[in-house]
């Protein structure tokens, strides 16, 4: 029997503002679309956090034995600077500044995006379509919207008539806005635009002479509006009605609101059952921004080449840090926070390695089935990774008690316990055990043994200050000495 049949998953739906029981459109299958990056610069840490949230969601659906089609796009055209309908395309601007072809910019930063996500152990999506690869589909959608009387052409550009659409639909439902308030709070257009209403958004933009990214269309040589690509690609690969659409909280308005409007104008039905939004990442309590210097790139965390952190941290430690907060909560990144996360991560990995050495007893003194369900309860409550991690550390406590033979598990319970710990730590959370290589480990052991011998000689010479100094400095490096009848040993 598939695992999803025995678990009740609840998801917070941004559309309703409530947690709802997840019921897929087609039993055993999940269709999920997530807005991907605009590839005009290096992927930033906030992007990584957003995509990690949906990587966890993807992994958990797979763990529950669903067949998942996960579509995450690449925006390589049509995204105007400042996310409005006037100005310069972000990729075209970067190409002009660096004197490159736009597709060189796209290639460079798409490769960077994939490299970073691979380093952080993300599963690849089922399909990763590009906006430029779906120009024909976008043009066909525009034709349909015009035929329905919701789109209009003006001087070679095409716009979506939000006011007319709102007469029969609710534009703003996802973000909690209403059109009357938006119209009241917007200045008059003063004849500076071809739009009929301030809230109308571009479906197609006529390219100016200097614009280097352009395609032929029935209206002009130009390029599609930013919002249109996701409507075209989500419906092409998931159908007009699918299960989940996700992205960052910042995309709720206007991007996702416009997507809903486009879909409903074309098909006459609500396109998505569950809208999921991941929250933002701050740095040292402030918004991350290149302009203020309060910024760090994912690669800089891994290399240590930054002025924010005290040292380099592994991708799994950074991943573990991010998963300690719920995906809908704001998460603050700092040196203290990731140092603490590293300690927790190492403790978890040490326990996972110790688990392999535990032998079964004749009886069980720990209720493993109850603990197992608590792990599932955490993930079934809107993918609550911090609560899951708390349960996994309860599992770490079990491991320590089993090692000390203060508790025992029979063979069946030990096997179940090991499988669940492994599944949630490595398969669902996507952590990796970044062990020190054997050669590095040998060098470390030799160095510490040399210091133990120096400390022994210092004590024999009654140089207790040096003896204590060696012990204390090793402790600050995370190496603890243990004096016993057999001599001195150490542990990391």
UniProtKB/TrEMBL annotation:
Q: Which reaction does it catalyse?
A: tRNA(Cys) + L-cysteine + ATP = L-cysteinyl-tRNA(Cys) + AMP + diphosphate
* Chain ranges for the short sequence motif 'KMSKS' region as given in the UniProt record: 287-291
* Record carries keyword Zinc-finger: no
Residue limits of the Cysteinyl-tRNA synthetase class Ia DALR domain?
374-437
Q: Where would you say this protein principally sits, based on its record?
A: cytoplasm
List required co-factors.
Zn(2+)
Its GO biological process annotations read: cysteinyl-tRNA aminoacylation
**Molecular function (GO) terms listed?**
ATP binding; cysteine-tRNA ligase activity; zinc ion binding
**Recorded superkingdom:** Bacteria
UniProt: ATP binding residues: 290
Cofactor info, note text: Binds 1 zinc ion per subunit.
Reported EC number(s) for this entry are 6.1.1.16
Q: Where does Zn(2+) bind?
A: 35, 230, 255, 259
- Annotated Gene Ontology cellular component terms: cytosol
Sequence motif: 'HIGH' region, positions = 37-47
Q: List localization entries.
A: Cytoplasm
Cite the record's note on assembly: Monomer.
UniProt xrefs under PANTHER family: CYSTEINE--TRNA LIGASE, CYTOPLASMIC (PTHR10890:SF3), CYSTEINYL-TRNA SYNTHETASE (PTHR10890)
Give the record's family classification.
Belongs to the class-I aminoacyl-tRNA synthetase family.
Q: Which protein is depicted? A: Cysteine--tRNA ligase
Write down the species.
Answer: Flavobacterium sandaracinum
């Amino acid at each position: 029997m598939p695992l999803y049949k025995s678990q009740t998953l609840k998801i917070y739906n941004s559309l309703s503002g409530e947690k709802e029981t997840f019921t897929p459109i087609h039993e055993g299958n999940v269709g999920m679309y997530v807005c991907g990056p605009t590839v005009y610069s290096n992927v930033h840490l906030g992007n990584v956090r957003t995509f990690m949230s949906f990587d966890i969601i993807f992994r958990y659906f797979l763990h529950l034995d669903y067949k998942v089609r996960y579509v995450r796009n690449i925006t390589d055209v049509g995204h105007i600077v400042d996310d409005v309908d006037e100005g310069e395309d972000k990729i075209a601007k970067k190409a002009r500044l660096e004197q490159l072809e736009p597709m060189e910019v796209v290639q460079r930063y798409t490769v960077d995006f994939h490299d970073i996500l691979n380093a952080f152990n993300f599963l690849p999506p089922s399909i990763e379509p590009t906006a430029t690869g779906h120009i024909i589909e976008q043009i066909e959608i525009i034709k349909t919207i015009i035929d329905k009387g919701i789109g209009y052409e003006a001087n070679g550009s095409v716009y979506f008539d939000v006011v007319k659409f709102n007469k029969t639909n609710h534009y703003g439902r996802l973000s909690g806005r209403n059109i009357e308030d938006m119209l009241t709070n917007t200045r008059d257009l003063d004849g500076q635009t071809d739009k009929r209403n301030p809230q109308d958004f571009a479906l197609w933009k006529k390219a100016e002479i200097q614009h280097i990214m352009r395609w032929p269309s029935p209206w002009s040589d130009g390029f599609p509006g930013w919002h249109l690509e996701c409507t075209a690609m989500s419906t092409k690969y998931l159908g007009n009605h699918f299960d989940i659409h996700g992205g960052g909280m910042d995309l709720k308005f206007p991007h996702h609101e416009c997507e809903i409007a486009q879909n409903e104008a074309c098909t006459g039905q609500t396109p998505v059952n569950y809208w999921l939004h991941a929250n933002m990442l701050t740095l040292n309590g402030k918004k991350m921004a290149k302009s203020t210097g309060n910024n760090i790139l994912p690669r800089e965390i891994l290399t240590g080449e930054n002025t924010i952190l005290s040292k380099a941290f592994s991708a799994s430690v950074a991943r573990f840090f991010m998963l300690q907060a719920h995906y809908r909560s704001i998460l603050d990144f700092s040196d203290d926070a990731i140092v603490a996360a590293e300690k927790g991560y190492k403790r978890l990995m040490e326990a996972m390695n110790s688990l392999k050495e535990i032998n079964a007893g004749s009886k069980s003194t720990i209720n493993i089935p109850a603990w197992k369900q608590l792990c599932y309860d955490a993930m079934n409550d809107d993918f609550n990774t911090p609560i899951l991690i708390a349960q996994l550390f309860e599992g770490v406590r079990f491991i320590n008690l089993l090692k000390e033979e203060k508790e025992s598990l029979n063979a069946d319970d030990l096997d179940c316990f090991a499988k669940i710990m492994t599944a949630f730590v490595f398969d669902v959370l996507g952590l990796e055990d970044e062990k020190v290589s054997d050669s590095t480990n040998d060098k470390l052991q030799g160095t510490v043994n040399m210091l133990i011998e120096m400390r022994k000689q210092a004590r024999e010479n009654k140089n207790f200050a040096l003896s204590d100094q060696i012990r204390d400095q090793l402790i600050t490096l995370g190496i603890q000495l243990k004096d016993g009848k057999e001599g001195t040993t150490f542990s990391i």
